[in-house]
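Can anyone check this?
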Amino acid sequence: MQWKSLVPVALVSAVVGCAAAIGIVSAFDLGGGHTTTVVQQAPLQGQPPSGSGDGGLTPRDIYKRTAPGVVFIRAQVVESTSSPFDFGFPQEQRGEATGSGFVLDKSGTILTNAHVVSGATKVTVQFADKHLVDARILGRDESTDLAVLKVSAKPSELTPLPLGTSRDVQVGDPTIAIGNPFGLERTLTTGVVSATHRTIQAPDGFEIDGVIQTDAAINPGNSGGPLLDATGRVIGINSQIATGGSGGGNVGIGFAVPIDTAKRLLPELKRTGRVDRGFLGVDAATIDKSLASGLNLSVDQGVLVQTVTPGGPADKAGIHGGDIAAQLNGNEIRLGGDIITAVDGRKIRTRDDLVDAISDKKKGDKVKIDLIRDGRKQSVEATLATRPTQTPGQG
């Protein structure tokens, strides 16, 4: 089956993310209903995660426990547009984006997707009892499509969801998604983990790794809502869907940002409002056995540098990109670049290894990069920069 596209599930203009973006121009209201819908109300089959003493829960049980902690997010957004009839003066168009989120603690911290509140001038959160409160954005990280909100609410009004781990998620594990698709509040759908370690594109063009794929129905408006395991613990944040044909709805393929990613970044997001990541400025391809043999490379693991950002840290350190375009197994690849094998002694086997090694560091950090050039081992030192807001390269 051919996928038409991967889209975030929020409803904003033509964006179909897990949020329900309500049109910027026409502002058609997908968030006006107050319906609670429960779909596929069958017992969850499968074993709970190891170490869990809680099992045998039905979707109804989990819904009763967790739905009060799932919130409906409305973001007033402003978009600047221009046309030949504006005579060079951009026009502002206003609308409302809607999505989902969930409560993290009794102090009023809420987690959602960054694209749900992108460009927001005002954000409100609606709880299960229908009352609305204003929310402020504590932090956003477009590279992982995560945002943290803060609301002033009584502790008795807040139902924090228990956080699990995405580390032990396996294909076939039961999943539950709760959110607000198409403005239908606190809708539940069930499914299974259909794949792990997927990669999707973040709003800023960088890639999000370790993503959970599920067949639980996720639609526009689900963005930022929780993906739960069989014990009701959050294992992911619903973010994108694959669409097919002419529609923008679910075709059985949804993607959730792993909760372990969120747990790792939450302290910095709450403290500074952003995530400071190092930037090397390379795009690279993973070397596997087929690539190594097909290109007659001197190593069978590492990453082959494809391009280097002009003026970036890698360029200043003398790292070379490829200069010969070729086709291998139907894929375009650039030959002649350096092969990176380690960063600060940490072995680099895949492209993801390189991204992780650099992302763990910050602007100004100096890193030693081991590489192979023309069959000879070399080492260079690079001083990392701040990751740009839009990707010119993945490293």
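Reply from J.R.: I decoded it. The radius of gyration is 22 Å.
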